[in-house]
Design a protein that fits this description.
Chain A: Its main location: nucleus. The complex is a heterodimer of chains A (392) and B (115). Chain A is built from nine helices and 16 strands. Chain A has 392 residues and is α+β, with helices and mostly antiparallel strands. In chain A, strands 1, 2, 3, 4, 13 and 16 form a six-stranded antiparallel β-sheet that branches. A four-stranded antiparallel β-sheet of chain A has the order 5-12-7-9, with helices on one face. In chain A, helix 4 crosses helix 9. Chain B has a five-stranded antiparallel β-sheet, with helices on one face. Chain B has a single domain, classed as RNA polymerase, RBP11-like subunit (Gyrase A, domain 2), CATH 3.30.1360. In chain B, 36% of the residues are buried. Classes of the chains: A alpha+beta (392), B alpha+beta (115). Chains A and B meet through helix 3, strand 3, helix 4 and helix 9 of A and helix 1 and helix 2 of B.
Protein backbone atom coordinates (compact mmCIF):
# COMPACT_ATOMS: atom_id res chain seq x y z
CA UNK A 1 0.00 0.00 0.00
CA UNK A 2 2.74 2.42 1.03
CA UNK A 3 4.72 1.55 -2.06
CA UNK A 4 1.80 2.51 -4.22
CA UNK A 5 1.45 5.83 -2.49
CA UNK A 6 5.06 6.73 -2.96
CA UNK A 7 4.89 5.79 -6.59
CA UNK A 8 1.83 7.98 -7.03
CA UNK A 9 3.77 10.86 -5.49
CA UNK A 10 6.48 10.34 -8.05
CA UNK A 11 3.85 10.30 -10.73
CA UNK A 12 2.55 13.66 -9.52
CA UNK A 13 5.92 15.31 -10.01
CA UNK A 14 6.49 13.62 -13.33
CA UNK A 15 3.02 14.71 -14.40
CA UNK A 16 4.03 18.31 -13.88
CA UNK A 17 7.03 17.79 -16.07
CA UNK A 18 4.88 16.17 -18.70
CA UNK A 19 2.55 19.14 -18.54
CA UNK A 20 5.48 21.36 -19.41
CA UNK A 21 6.46 19.05 -22.26
CA UNK A 22 2.93 18.98 -23.56
CA UNK A 23 2.89 22.72 -23.93
CA UNK A 24 6.00 22.52 -26.03
CA UNK A 25 5.12 19.51 -28.18
CA UNK A 26 1.38 19.89 -28.60
CA UNK A 27 -1.10 17.04 -27.99
CA UNK A 28 0.08 13.49 -27.45
CA UNK A 29 -1.75 10.53 -25.90
CA UNK A 30 1.37 9.94 -23.83
CA UNK A 31 0.54 13.12 -21.97
CA UNK A 32 -3.00 12.10 -21.02
CA UNK A 33 -3.54 11.85 -17.26
CA UNK A 34 -3.43 8.41 -15.68
CA UNK A 35 -6.70 6.77 -14.78
CA UNK A 36 -6.90 5.27 -11.35
CA UNK A 37 -6.74 1.47 -11.20
CA UNK A 38 -10.19 -0.05 -10.77
CA UNK A 39 -11.96 2.81 -12.43
CA UNK A 40 -13.03 3.18 -16.03
CA UNK A 41 -11.70 6.17 -17.94
CA UNK A 42 -14.52 8.64 -18.63
CA UNK A 43 -14.85 7.83 -22.33
CA UNK A 44 -15.09 4.08 -21.69
CA UNK A 45 -17.58 4.69 -18.90
CA UNK A 46 -19.64 6.73 -21.34
CA UNK A 47 -19.53 3.93 -23.92
CA UNK A 48 -20.56 1.45 -21.25
CA UNK A 49 -23.49 3.38 -19.88
CA UNK A 50 -24.82 5.45 -22.79
CA UNK A 51 -26.04 4.95 -26.32
CA UNK A 52 -24.77 7.90 -28.31
CA UNK A 53 -27.17 9.17 -30.96
CA UNK A 54 -25.34 10.62 -33.92
CA UNK A 55 -27.23 12.36 -36.76
CA UNK A 56 -27.01 9.30 -39.01
CA UNK A 57 -27.13 6.39 -36.56
CA UNK A 58 -26.77 5.49 -32.89
CA UNK A 59 -23.46 4.10 -31.62
CA UNK A 60 -22.49 2.03 -28.57
CA UNK A 61 -25.85 0.32 -28.64
CA UNK A 62 -24.60 -2.95 -27.16
CA UNK A 63 -24.25 -3.77 -23.49
CA UNK A 64 -21.15 -5.63 -22.41
CA UNK A 65 -22.34 -8.40 -20.16
CA UNK A 66 -19.15 -10.44 -19.96
CA UNK A 67 -17.77 -10.45 -16.44
CA UNK A 68 -14.19 -9.86 -17.59
CA UNK A 69 -15.01 -7.14 -20.09
CA UNK A 70 -13.09 -4.47 -18.16
CA UNK A 71 -10.61 -6.75 -16.37
CA UNK A 72 -7.63 -5.03 -18.00
CA UNK A 73 -8.67 -1.82 -16.24
CA UNK A 74 -9.16 -3.55 -12.92
CA UNK A 75 -12.92 -3.22 -13.10
CA UNK A 76 -14.97 -6.24 -12.15
CA UNK A 77 -18.04 -6.54 -14.39
CA UNK A 78 -19.38 -9.68 -12.71
CA UNK A 79 -22.75 -9.88 -11.04
CA UNK A 80 -22.88 -8.97 -7.37
CA UNK A 81 -26.22 -9.13 -5.70
CA UNK A 82 -25.30 -6.50 -3.10
CA UNK A 83 -24.15 -4.15 -5.87
CA UNK A 84 -27.42 -4.72 -7.65
CA UNK A 85 -29.35 -4.04 -4.44
CA UNK A 86 -27.43 -0.82 -3.88
CA UNK A 87 -27.96 0.50 -7.40
CA UNK A 88 -31.43 -0.71 -8.26
CA UNK A 89 -34.24 1.81 -7.88
CA UNK A 90 -37.87 2.11 -8.91
CA UNK A 91 -39.55 5.46 -9.22
CA UNK A 92 -43.30 5.50 -9.78
CA UNK A 93 -44.18 8.41 -12.06
CA UNK A 94 -47.88 7.89 -12.54
CA UNK A 95 -50.26 5.24 -11.30
CA UNK A 96 -53.98 4.82 -11.65
CA UNK A 97 -56.32 1.88 -11.93
CA UNK A 98 -55.36 0.91 -15.46
CA UNK A 99 -52.12 2.69 -16.35
CA UNK A 100 -48.77 2.93 -14.70
CA UNK A 101 -45.52 4.60 -15.61
CA UNK A 102 -42.40 3.97 -13.60
CA UNK A 103 -38.63 4.16 -13.92
CA UNK A 104 -36.58 1.00 -13.57
CA UNK A 105 -33.06 2.12 -12.80
CA UNK A 106 -30.00 -0.11 -12.56
CA UNK A 107 -31.18 -3.20 -14.39
CA UNK A 108 -29.99 -4.82 -17.60
CA UNK A 109 -32.07 -4.67 -20.78
CA UNK A 110 -32.22 -8.48 -20.85
CA UNK A 111 -34.18 -8.60 -17.62
CA UNK A 112 -36.32 -5.52 -18.33
CA UNK A 113 -37.23 -7.06 -21.68
CA UNK A 114 -38.07 -10.37 -20.03
CA UNK A 115 -40.56 -8.55 -17.80
CA UNK A 116 -42.09 -6.82 -20.81
CA UNK A 117 -42.39 -10.04 -22.79
CA UNK A 118 -43.94 -11.87 -19.84
CA UNK A 119 -46.46 -9.07 -19.30
CA UNK A 120 -47.65 -9.27 -22.87
CA UNK A 121 -47.70 -13.01 -23.40
CA UNK A 122 -47.45 -14.98 -20.17
CA UNK A 123 -49.49 -13.35 -17.42
CA UNK A 124 -52.82 -15.20 -17.49
CA UNK A 125 -56.30 -13.69 -17.60
CA UNK A 126 -59.82 -14.93 -18.20
CA UNK A 127 -61.37 -14.50 -21.65
CA UNK A 128 -64.37 -15.89 -23.49
CA UNK A 129 -63.32 -19.03 -25.35
CA UNK A 130 -66.59 -20.82 -26.17
CA UNK A 131 -69.82 -19.21 -27.27
CA UNK A 132 -73.05 -21.19 -27.45
CA UNK A 133 -75.39 -19.31 -29.75
CA UNK A 134 -79.06 -20.20 -29.32
CA UNK A 135 -80.35 -17.49 -31.60
CA UNK A 136 -78.72 -14.83 -33.70
CA UNK A 137 -80.82 -13.00 -36.22
CA UNK A 138 -78.64 -9.89 -36.21
CA UNK A 139 -76.58 -8.87 -39.22
CA UNK A 140 -73.37 -9.81 -37.46
CA UNK A 141 -72.37 -13.39 -38.20
CA UNK A 142 -71.98 -15.96 -35.43
CA UNK A 143 -68.23 -16.36 -35.83
CA UNK A 144 -67.62 -12.61 -35.94
CA UNK A 145 -69.82 -12.17 -32.89
CA UNK A 146 -67.91 -14.91 -31.06
CA UNK A 147 -64.60 -13.28 -31.93
CA UNK A 148 -65.81 -9.89 -30.69
CA UNK A 149 -66.98 -11.43 -27.43
CA UNK A 150 -63.60 -13.09 -26.96
CA UNK A 151 -61.83 -9.76 -27.00
CA UNK A 152 -63.94 -8.24 -24.18
CA UNK A 153 -61.91 -8.05 -20.97
CA UNK A 154 -63.49 -9.86 -18.03
CA UNK A 155 -63.04 -8.03 -14.74
CA UNK A 156 -61.99 -10.88 -12.48
CA UNK A 157 -58.79 -11.93 -10.76
CA UNK A 158 -57.46 -14.86 -12.86
CA UNK A 159 -55.46 -16.14 -9.89
CA UNK A 160 -58.73 -17.43 -8.41
CA UNK A 161 -59.18 -19.82 -11.33
CA UNK A 162 -57.51 -22.92 -12.71
CA UNK A 163 -56.69 -23.74 -16.32
CA UNK A 164 -59.24 -25.84 -18.17
CA UNK A 165 -57.35 -28.69 -19.84
CA UNK A 166 -58.63 -30.66 -22.79
CA UNK A 167 -60.06 -33.51 -20.70
CA UNK A 168 -61.49 -31.39 -17.88
CA UNK A 169 -65.18 -30.78 -17.49
CA UNK A 170 -66.04 -27.10 -17.09
CA UNK A 171 -66.66 -26.44 -13.40
CA UNK A 172 -66.87 -23.52 -11.00
CA UNK A 173 -63.07 -23.41 -10.62
CA UNK A 174 -62.18 -23.07 -14.29
CA UNK A 175 -65.11 -21.50 -16.13
CA UNK A 176 -67.11 -18.30 -15.98
CA UNK A 177 -70.46 -18.36 -17.74
CA UNK A 178 -71.94 -15.15 -19.11
CA UNK A 179 -75.33 -14.86 -20.71
CA UNK A 180 -76.44 -12.40 -23.36
CA UNK A 181 -80.03 -12.02 -24.37
CA UNK A 182 -80.72 -8.86 -26.32
CA UNK A 183 -83.53 -8.10 -28.67
CA UNK A 184 -85.01 -5.22 -30.55
CA UNK A 185 -88.76 -5.55 -30.71
CA UNK A 186 -90.53 -5.02 -34.02
CA UNK A 187 -91.50 -1.40 -34.37
CA UNK A 188 -88.69 -0.17 -32.12
CA UNK A 189 -85.80 1.82 -33.51
CA UNK A 190 -82.36 0.26 -34.03
CA UNK A 191 -80.40 -0.35 -30.87
CA UNK A 192 -76.86 -1.06 -29.77
CA UNK A 193 -75.90 -4.04 -27.62
CA UNK A 194 -73.23 -3.15 -25.07
CA UNK A 195 -70.94 -5.43 -23.12
CA UNK A 196 -72.63 -4.61 -19.80
CA UNK A 197 -75.59 -6.65 -21.04
CA UNK A 198 -73.48 -9.77 -20.54
CA UNK A 199 -74.90 -11.22 -17.32
CA UNK A 200 -72.85 -13.47 -15.09
CA UNK A 201 -74.38 -16.87 -14.38
CA UNK A 202 -72.82 -17.98 -11.09
CA UNK A 203 -74.62 -21.32 -11.30
CA UNK A 204 -73.14 -22.21 -14.66
CA UNK A 205 -74.70 -22.92 -17.99
CA UNK A 206 -78.47 -22.82 -18.37
CA UNK A 207 -78.54 -24.48 -21.77
CA UNK A 208 -79.57 -28.13 -21.64
CA UNK A 209 -77.35 -30.56 -23.50
CA UNK A 210 -79.05 -32.71 -26.10
CA UNK A 211 -78.97 -36.32 -25.07
CA UNK A 212 -79.47 -39.52 -27.06
CA UNK A 213 -81.27 -41.16 -24.20
CA UNK A 214 -84.52 -39.24 -23.52
CA UNK A 215 -84.79 -40.75 -20.02
CA UNK A 216 -81.38 -39.57 -18.78
CA UNK A 217 -81.14 -36.69 -16.36
CA UNK A 218 -80.92 -33.38 -18.24
CA UNK A 219 -77.43 -31.94 -18.13
CA UNK A 220 -75.99 -28.56 -19.12
CA UNK A 221 -72.70 -27.56 -20.72
CA UNK A 222 -71.06 -27.05 -17.34
CA UNK A 223 -71.03 -29.07 -14.16
CA UNK A 224 -70.76 -26.66 -11.26
CA UNK A 225 -70.71 -28.33 -7.85
CA UNK A 226 -71.68 -25.07 -6.17
CA UNK A 227 -72.68 -21.59 -7.13
CA UNK A 228 -69.77 -19.21 -7.75
CA UNK A 229 -71.43 -16.41 -5.81
CA UNK A 230 -71.41 -18.58 -2.70
CA UNK A 231 -67.58 -18.55 -2.85
CA UNK A 232 -66.18 -15.90 -0.50
CA UNK A 233 -64.04 -14.23 -3.20
CA UNK A 234 -67.03 -13.47 -5.45
CA UNK A 235 -69.79 -13.04 -2.86
CA UNK A 236 -69.17 -9.32 -2.48
CA UNK A 237 -67.76 -8.55 -5.92
CA UNK A 238 -69.71 -10.10 -8.77
CA UNK A 239 -67.90 -10.91 -12.01
CA UNK A 240 -68.64 -8.61 -14.93
CA UNK A 241 -67.30 -7.73 -18.35
CA UNK A 242 -65.67 -4.39 -19.21
CA UNK A 243 -68.47 -1.86 -19.79
CA UNK A 244 -69.29 0.32 -22.79
CA UNK A 245 -67.93 -1.97 -25.48
CA UNK A 246 -70.24 -2.31 -28.47
CA UNK A 247 -70.98 -5.95 -29.23
CA UNK A 248 -73.53 -5.62 -32.03
CA UNK A 249 -76.34 -3.48 -33.38
CA UNK A 250 -79.86 -4.82 -33.68
CA UNK A 251 -82.55 -3.79 -36.13
CA UNK A 252 -86.27 -4.12 -35.38
CA UNK A 253 -87.21 -7.76 -34.84
CA UNK A 254 -83.62 -8.95 -34.46
CA UNK A 255 -82.43 -10.94 -31.49
CA UNK A 256 -79.27 -12.39 -30.00
CA UNK A 257 -79.38 -15.13 -27.40
CA UNK A 258 -76.19 -16.78 -26.36
CA UNK A 259 -74.02 -18.08 -23.57
CA UNK A 260 -70.33 -17.30 -23.40
CA UNK A 261 -67.86 -19.44 -21.45
CA UNK A 262 -64.71 -17.70 -20.28
CA UNK A 263 -61.62 -19.72 -19.35
CA UNK A 264 -58.10 -18.95 -18.18
CA UNK A 265 -55.37 -18.56 -20.76
CA UNK A 266 -52.20 -16.75 -21.75
CA UNK A 267 -51.46 -14.07 -24.34
CA UNK A 268 -49.12 -16.36 -26.26
CA UNK A 269 -52.09 -18.56 -27.17
CA UNK A 270 -54.28 -15.67 -28.27
CA UNK A 271 -54.01 -11.91 -27.69
CA UNK A 272 -57.45 -11.90 -26.03
CA UNK A 273 -55.78 -13.36 -22.94
CA UNK A 274 -53.14 -10.65 -22.80
CA UNK A 275 -53.65 -8.67 -19.58
CA UNK A 276 -52.18 -5.51 -21.08
CA UNK A 277 -53.22 -3.25 -23.93
CA UNK A 278 -49.52 -3.08 -24.23
CA UNK A 279 -46.45 -2.81 -22.05
CA UNK A 280 -43.37 -1.00 -23.26
CA UNK A 281 -40.25 0.76 -22.15
CA UNK A 282 -37.83 3.31 -23.51
CA UNK A 283 -34.36 4.16 -22.35
CA UNK A 284 -34.03 7.44 -20.50
CA UNK A 285 -33.07 10.22 -22.93
CA UNK A 286 -30.21 12.48 -21.95
CA UNK A 287 -29.63 15.79 -23.71
CA UNK A 288 -26.34 17.56 -23.08
CA UNK A 289 -25.27 20.99 -24.29
CA UNK A 290 -21.56 20.65 -25.00
CA UNK A 291 -20.94 24.36 -25.35
CA UNK A 292 -22.84 27.54 -24.54
CA UNK A 293 -25.59 28.26 -27.04
CA UNK A 294 -26.40 31.95 -26.83
CA UNK A 295 -28.46 34.69 -28.42
CA UNK A 296 -29.98 33.95 -31.82
CA UNK A 297 -28.63 30.39 -31.77
CA UNK A 298 -30.43 29.69 -28.51
CA UNK A 299 -33.70 30.72 -30.09
CA UNK A 300 -32.97 28.63 -33.16
CA UNK A 301 -32.32 25.59 -30.97
CA UNK A 302 -35.67 26.00 -29.21
CA UNK A 303 -37.35 26.43 -32.61
CA UNK A 304 -35.64 23.33 -34.07
CA UNK A 305 -37.02 21.07 -31.33
CA UNK A 306 -40.53 19.78 -32.15
CA UNK A 307 -41.23 18.86 -28.52
CA UNK A 308 -42.22 21.55 -26.05
CA UNK A 309 -40.12 21.78 -22.94
CA UNK A 310 -36.87 19.99 -23.82
CA UNK A 311 -34.93 23.22 -24.31
CA UNK A 312 -35.56 26.54 -22.67
CA UNK A 313 -33.98 29.97 -22.76
CA UNK A 314 -32.54 31.54 -19.69
CA UNK A 315 -31.66 35.18 -19.25
CA UNK A 316 -28.07 35.60 -18.20
CA UNK A 317 -28.58 39.24 -17.30
CA UNK A 318 -27.86 42.37 -19.36
CA UNK A 319 -30.25 41.18 -22.06
CA UNK A 320 -28.25 38.08 -23.04
CA UNK A 321 -29.96 34.76 -23.63
CA UNK A 322 -28.62 31.25 -23.22
CA UNK A 323 -30.18 27.88 -24.09
CA UNK A 324 -30.55 25.30 -21.32
CA UNK A 325 -31.90 21.75 -21.17
CA UNK A 326 -35.10 22.12 -19.17
CA UNK A 327 -36.45 18.56 -19.26
CA UNK A 328 -34.68 15.80 -21.16
CA UNK A 329 -37.29 13.21 -20.14
CA UNK A 330 -39.84 14.45 -22.69
CA UNK A 331 -37.25 14.28 -25.50
CA UNK A 332 -38.18 11.72 -28.14
CA UNK A 333 -34.61 11.69 -29.46
CA UNK A 334 -35.82 12.63 -32.90
CA UNK A 335 -32.36 14.18 -33.57
CA UNK A 336 -33.92 17.23 -35.17
CA UNK A 337 -31.68 19.45 -33.01
CA UNK A 338 -28.45 17.97 -34.39
CA UNK A 339 -29.57 17.88 -38.00
CA UNK A 340 -28.56 20.50 -40.56
CA UNK A 341 -25.43 22.48 -39.92
CA UNK A 342 -22.57 20.40 -38.53
CA UNK A 343 -21.98 22.90 -35.74
CA UNK A 344 -25.09 21.61 -33.98
CA UNK A 345 -23.54 18.19 -33.65
CA UNK A 346 -20.67 19.81 -31.77
CA UNK A 347 -23.03 21.72 -29.50
CA UNK A 348 -25.68 19.16 -28.58
CA UNK A 349 -25.14 15.53 -27.61
CA UNK A 350 -28.00 13.06 -27.37
CA UNK A 351 -27.73 9.90 -25.30
CA UNK A 352 -29.86 7.08 -24.03
CA UNK A 353 -29.04 5.82 -20.55
CA UNK A 354 -28.64 2.06 -20.96
CA UNK A 355 -29.76 0.98 -17.51
CA UNK A 356 -32.60 3.44 -16.96
CA UNK A 357 -35.92 2.29 -18.36
CA UNK A 358 -39.13 4.29 -18.49
CA UNK A 359 -41.58 1.43 -18.26
CA UNK A 360 -45.26 1.84 -19.06
CA UNK A 361 -48.00 -0.71 -18.49
CA UNK A 362 -51.56 -0.31 -19.73
CA UNK A 363 -53.85 -2.83 -18.13
CA UNK A 364 -56.98 -4.06 -19.89
CA UNK A 365 -58.85 -4.08 -16.60
CA UNK A 366 -58.59 -7.55 -15.09
CA UNK A 367 -55.79 -6.62 -12.68
CA UNK A 368 -54.29 -3.25 -11.73
CA UNK A 369 -50.97 -2.54 -13.48
CA UNK A 370 -48.77 -2.77 -10.39
CA UNK A 371 -50.15 -6.23 -9.64
CA UNK A 372 -49.52 -7.26 -13.26
CA UNK A 373 -45.86 -6.28 -12.96
CA UNK A 374 -45.51 -8.19 -9.70
CA UNK A 375 -47.08 -11.22 -11.36
CA UNK A 376 -44.69 -10.93 -14.31
CA UNK A 377 -41.70 -10.87 -11.97
CA UNK A 378 -43.08 -13.89 -10.14
CA UNK A 379 -43.41 -15.76 -13.43
CA UNK A 380 -39.75 -15.14 -14.27
CA UNK A 381 -38.87 -16.38 -10.79
CA UNK A 382 -40.95 -19.50 -11.37
CA UNK A 383 -39.14 -20.15 -14.66
CA UNK A 384 -35.76 -19.95 -12.88
CA UNK A 385 -37.00 -22.21 -10.16
CA UNK A 386 -38.14 -24.75 -12.72
CA UNK A 387 -34.67 -24.83 -14.25
CA UNK A 388 -33.05 -25.25 -10.84
CA UNK A 389 -35.33 -28.10 -9.79
CA UNK A 390 -34.96 -29.85 -13.11
CA UNK A 391 -31.17 -29.69 -13.00
CA UNK A 392 -30.98 -30.86 -9.38
CA UNK B 1 -12.66 -33.30 -30.00
CA UNK B 2 -15.07 -34.88 -27.57
CA UNK B 3 -18.51 -35.57 -28.90
CA UNK B 4 -21.60 -35.46 -26.70
CA UNK B 5 -21.77 -38.86 -25.13
CA UNK B 6 -24.63 -38.64 -22.71
CA UNK B 7 -28.03 -37.11 -22.49
CA UNK B 8 -29.82 -37.03 -19.19
CA UNK B 9 -33.42 -36.60 -20.04
CA UNK B 10 -35.87 -35.01 -17.66
CA UNK B 11 -39.35 -33.85 -18.62
CA UNK B 12 -38.48 -30.33 -19.67
CA UNK B 13 -34.72 -29.87 -19.49
CA UNK B 14 -32.01 -31.89 -21.14
CA UNK B 15 -28.29 -31.70 -20.75
CA UNK B 16 -26.04 -32.69 -23.62
CA UNK B 17 -22.44 -32.91 -22.57
CA UNK B 18 -19.57 -35.22 -22.09
CA UNK B 19 -19.17 -37.70 -19.25
CA UNK B 20 -15.51 -36.89 -18.79
CA UNK B 21 -15.75 -33.14 -19.04
CA UNK B 22 -18.69 -31.62 -17.18
CA UNK B 23 -17.36 -28.10 -17.69
CA UNK B 24 -19.14 -27.62 -20.98
CA UNK B 25 -22.65 -28.61 -21.88
CA UNK B 26 -25.69 -27.60 -23.86
CA UNK B 27 -28.98 -27.44 -22.02
CA UNK B 28 -32.20 -27.79 -23.91
CA UNK B 29 -35.37 -26.32 -22.42
CA UNK B 30 -38.79 -26.96 -23.82
CA UNK B 31 -41.63 -24.42 -23.52
CA UNK B 32 -39.19 -21.57 -23.11
CA UNK B 33 -38.15 -18.74 -25.41
CA UNK B 34 -36.01 -15.59 -25.47
CA UNK B 35 -37.67 -14.44 -22.24
CA UNK B 36 -35.84 -16.95 -20.08
CA UNK B 37 -32.90 -17.71 -22.36
CA UNK B 38 -31.74 -14.13 -22.79
CA UNK B 39 -32.09 -13.39 -19.07
CA UNK B 40 -30.17 -16.54 -18.17
CA UNK B 41 -27.51 -15.72 -20.73
CA UNK B 42 -27.16 -12.31 -19.09
CA UNK B 43 -26.78 -13.89 -15.66
CA UNK B 44 -24.29 -16.47 -16.97
CA UNK B 45 -22.18 -13.89 -18.77
CA UNK B 46 -21.77 -11.96 -15.56
CA UNK B 47 -20.38 -15.02 -13.80
CA UNK B 48 -16.56 -15.05 -13.82
CA UNK B 49 -16.50 -18.87 -13.99
CA UNK B 50 -18.11 -18.82 -17.43
CA UNK B 51 -15.79 -18.73 -20.41
CA UNK B 52 -18.51 -18.90 -23.06
CA UNK B 53 -22.26 -18.94 -23.15
CA UNK B 54 -24.98 -18.35 -25.66
CA UNK B 55 -28.37 -19.57 -26.67
CA UNK B 56 -30.20 -20.48 -29.82
CA UNK B 57 -33.71 -21.34 -30.87
CA UNK B 58 -33.20 -24.18 -33.36
CA UNK B 59 -36.53 -23.72 -35.06
CA UNK B 60 -39.07 -20.92 -34.56
CA UNK B 61 -42.01 -23.34 -34.62
CA UNK B 62 -40.61 -25.46 -31.80
CA UNK B 63 -40.91 -23.98 -28.34
CA UNK B 64 -37.41 -24.96 -27.37
CA UNK B 65 -34.17 -23.15 -26.58
CA UNK B 66 -30.65 -24.50 -26.35
CA UNK B 67 -28.33 -22.81 -23.90
CA UNK B 68 -24.61 -23.47 -24.28
CA UNK B 69 -22.42 -23.08 -21.24
CA UNK B 70 -18.65 -23.52 -21.15
CA UNK B 71 -16.85 -22.85 -17.92
CA UNK B 72 -13.27 -22.48 -16.77
CA UNK B 73 -13.55 -25.77 -14.84
CA UNK B 74 -16.63 -25.87 -12.65
CA UNK B 75 -19.50 -28.13 -13.75
CA UNK B 76 -21.66 -26.24 -16.26
CA UNK B 77 -24.79 -27.55 -14.59
CA UNK B 78 -23.89 -25.96 -11.24
CA UNK B 79 -22.94 -22.68 -12.87
CA UNK B 80 -26.26 -22.58 -14.72
CA UNK B 81 -28.09 -23.30 -11.49
CA UNK B 82 -26.25 -20.46 -9.78
CA UNK B 83 -27.13 -18.11 -12.62
CA UNK B 84 -30.81 -18.98 -12.22
CA UNK B 85 -30.48 -18.52 -8.49
CA UNK B 86 -29.00 -15.04 -9.01
CA UNK B 87 -31.76 -14.16 -11.41
CA UNK B 88 -34.34 -15.29 -8.88
CA UNK B 89 -32.81 -13.19 -6.13
CA UNK B 90 -32.77 -10.23 -8.50
CA UNK B 91 -36.46 -10.74 -9.24
CA UNK B 92 -37.28 -10.94 -5.54
CA UNK B 93 -35.48 -7.67 -4.98
CA UNK B 94 -37.30 -6.05 -7.92
CA UNK B 95 -40.60 -7.20 -6.47
CA UNK B 96 -39.99 -5.85 -2.98
CA UNK B 97 -38.66 -2.57 -4.40
CA UNK B 98 -41.76 -2.17 -6.53
CA UNK B 99 -44.06 -2.80 -3.59
CA UNK B 100 -42.21 -0.16 -1.61
CA UNK B 101 -42.23 2.30 -4.53
CA UNK B 102 -45.97 1.88 -5.01
CA UNK B 103 -46.62 2.36 -1.28
CA UNK B 104 -44.46 5.48 -1.29
CA UNK B 105 -46.26 6.83 -4.33
CA UNK B 106 -49.65 6.23 -2.72
CA UNK B 107 -48.65 7.97 0.50
CA UNK B 108 -46.87 10.83 -1.24
CA UNK B 109 -47.48 11.08 -4.99
CA UNK B 110 -45.19 14.07 -5.54
CA UNK B 111 -41.85 12.77 -4.36
CA UNK B 112 -41.12 9.16 -5.14
CA UNK B 113 -37.70 7.63 -5.29
CA UNK B 114 -37.37 4.23 -3.77
CA UNK B 115 -34.18 2.39 -3.21
Amino acid sequence: MSEQESSSDERMSSEEEEEEQKKEEGFSYMNLPDVEWGQLPPHIEKQRSRVHLKPDAPTNTETLQYSGAYASMGVDNSFRLDNFRDNFRIKVIALDKDKMEFDLIGIDAAVANAFRRILISEVPTMAIEKVFIANNTSVIQDEVLAHRLGLIPIKVDPRLFEYLSANDTPNEKNTIVLKLHARCLPGQSRRTVYSQELKWLPNGSEFAKESENPNSKPSTYTSFSCSQDSLPEFASNPISAMEDIIIAKLGPGQEIELEAHAVKGMGKTHAKWSPVGTAWYRMFPEVVLLENVEGEDAEELVRKCPIDGVFDIEDTGNGKKRAIVADSRVCTLCRECIRGDEMWERRVALYRVKDHFIFTIESTGALPPEVLFTEAVKILEAKCERVITELS
Amino acid sequence: MKRPTCSLETPAAMEHGSVRDPSSATFSFVDEDHTLANSVRFALNQDPRVSLCGYSIPHPSDSRVNIRVQTTGDPAREVLKDACQNLMLMCQHVRSTLDKAVDDYRSNPTDMDTK
